[in-house]
Model the fold of this input.
Amino acid sequence: MIRVRRVAAMAAVAFLLLISRGWAQVAAWPSESPPRPLAAHDVKFPPYELRTLPNGMQVVVVMHHEQPAVSIRLIVRAGSAQDPAGKVGVASLAVALLDQGTTTRTAVQIADTIDSVGGDGDTGAGRDLSYAHILVMKDSFDLGMRLLADEVRNPSFAEAEVERQRQQMLSALKVSYDDPEYMANIVFDRLVYGFNPYGAPSNGTPDSLSRITRADLQAFHQRWYAPNNCLLAVVGDVTADEAFATVTRAFGDWARREVPTDAAADPPQPTRRVIIVDNPTLVQTEVRVGHLGIPRKQNDYMAMDLAIKILGGEGANRLHRVLRMERGLTYGVSAEMETLRRAGEFVAITNTRSEATGEVLRLIVEQFNRLRLERVNEQELADAKAYLTGNFPLRIETPADIAMQVLNVLFYDLPVEELQTYRQRVNAVSVDDIARVANAYVRPDRLSVVLVGNAKAFVNQLKAVGFDRYEVIPAGDIDLTTVDLRRRPATGDPGGPPAPHEHTGGARPVPAPVDQQEGQRAQRVLQRAIEAKGGADRLRRVRTVVMKGTITTPGGITLPTTSYIAYPDKVRVDARLPNGDLTQVHAGGEAVILERTLTEVKLNAPVDETLFNRPA
Done:
């Protein structure tokens, strides 16, 4: 018995020693830092050849012989940004109908043809472009090319198919409008891009889709679908001569046409605005924070892409570290950079429980500020670089992937050679480059904010985190075609607009509704005025103005004045009155001047900042 007890005691001691060693080992393991990335493998972009057909169609052939398949992808330089005024969704509906019937094939025949050879196809539209894609085995290459040409060149837009596709899109929108994430995205785009076409949802609205006719689709196709407005990529197990010969047979006789130029006004400059989309049924808040960004064809694109990766992207993600790992306020948060032909946007995306909304908003704005004010460290930049360079091989893994990469480069008028030097260009970005672009493009004081959730649960938090001006709009009243984003009452509706506090938190007056066409006309007038004054860049360089002149009161008294303006929000007016001098100072406020005759104006004149100290 004693021996048995002794053995048991020794076993217990051994067990305790084993556990203690295990704890020691666990304590020595890294608890936060991920393992360092492995060295990147050398990746060679496959050989390619680029030609332009006599009708103006650009064609690129990429030889990729690893699989006996060929990807054929055609893009048209027209998307939702080219939708007719008041009929958002035309581009999306038109491209969705390309494979739903042509003048020679029904929708069923198209589906049977591609299925019979084991192929696949799809279509789609974005803001800047529309596309059609077919993937077939090599022995069906000629068939796939002829089928794609028929779809793009000869869509029938049959009334029955138009109505069927319209109903599908309307049903999808009905579901989307109940999705807080979708609502946050479309309202945020509208804030950032204003009445520029980029600000409208690509898939339209229930009202605009219901008004699109077959004639609208035919007119859009005739206006934008032309060989000289198209790019075609053939990627796969083909030779260059074989591919160009097949393309020429299918598209060579497509007649060139004149394509309209894009006359849309540029999006507005960033302006701070907070929109709360009120849905009392929600227990979480969808959060979007950001502002206007840069276009794709911008020399600072690579550095800015890495900066946003550090803020909230793969490889670094300060936002995730602060909001998720340190504070536990969300399950996930990211920052993204969208780049288009004429503009782009930076946006932070997350959701959180209602009671944490104000704190999450504060922390996001703090990280935008930090990106601008503090230099990133070398390790953060190295981690972001490692992600981009390590992920690149996955983006050129299949023929379809390669086709997308090549067409994106061509679409944005970038040299195809950039694909060969991608890793070198990523690794060339320095900490100084990140600091420069962050200071040039990030504007924490001009952030657009969209919060979709139960407003009563968090609206009282906003003032404490620096947002005392906001607009509250019931989710069912959202209308992207008006300035105040509020649906107009129907004729005979006695309800009228809601009380001001429901819109603004008592801080901002509600503007009169303006429809989309009126807004676009206003944008064009403003653009002409800007051009008449030497262009937006020249006007942005104006920081101070000194004006000397006179003010005439309604009583006929003429007062000599000197006005000092320091943009964006400081004004001082010194007036000589009969009984003494009068000084008015406005720092962030508003002033109304009755009538003025200017005798002298000096732009960018040196102004003493102490002039704007509020008088006692």
Summary: The chain is about 40% helix and 20% strand. Confidence is low (pLDDT under 50) at residues 1-31, 492-513, 589-594. Residues 542-612 form one domain. The CA atoms of residues 484 and 512 lie 7 Å apart.
